[in-house]
């Protein structure tokens, strides 16, 4: 704490506040994910893939905020469970494309709906204009980042 203000550095540090907001958003929802038999990273993979096209492993790693070797091993296990399909990229046979299977989409669909409801409950404290502004500002911060390498 600074003597003059009585505030700690982290109380106004954006990274800390974003981390606290992230924790508030996911702490209760993570229990729902685990109750469905998924780890948090498996959830992020399936949530990312469930309503989109195939992604390369490196694209998926970036999307789910994890390292490529970790995601490579993870998607192989998820393929063994029938949740994702792995195919060689038509453009580059050295790259693996990952897509959600019908079983993976069935598994994650109720969780996606629960995630939307959970988010809506947390955002009730904000007005419509604040919600829109928050999303726009967060998108702007993400877009301002140089290419991220984990």
Descriptive report:
- With 150 residues, this protein is mainly alpha-helical.
- It has helices at 14-35, 40-49, 57-63, 68-80, 102-122, 128-143, and strands at residues 55-56, 84-88, 96-100.
- It has a three-stranded antiparallel sheet with strand order 1-3-2.
- A hairpin with a 7-residue loop joins strand 2 (84-88) and strand 3.
- Helix 1 (14-35) crosses helix 5 and helix 2 packs across helix 5 (102-122).
- It is globular.
> Gap between N and C termini, in Å?
33 Å
Gross morphology is globular
Secondary structure category: mainly alpha
Biggest beta-sheet profile: 3 strands, antiparallel
The percent of residues in helical segments reads 55-70%
State the order of secondary-structure elements, H for helix, E for strand: HHEHHEEHH
Number of DSSP strand runs = 3
Topology:
Layout: H1 14-35, H2 40-49, E1 55-56, H3 57-63, H4 68-80, E2 84-88, E3 96-100, H5 102-122, H6 128-143
Antiparallel strand pairs: 1-3, 2-3
Helix pairs in contact: 1-5, 2-5, 3-4
Concise account of the structure shown:
The chain is mainly α and 150 residues long. It has six helices and three strands; from the N terminus they run ααβααββαα. Strands 1-3-2 form a three-stranded antiparallel β-sheet.
Features:
150 residues; mainly alpha; three-stranded antiparallel β-sheet; 6 helices; 59% helix
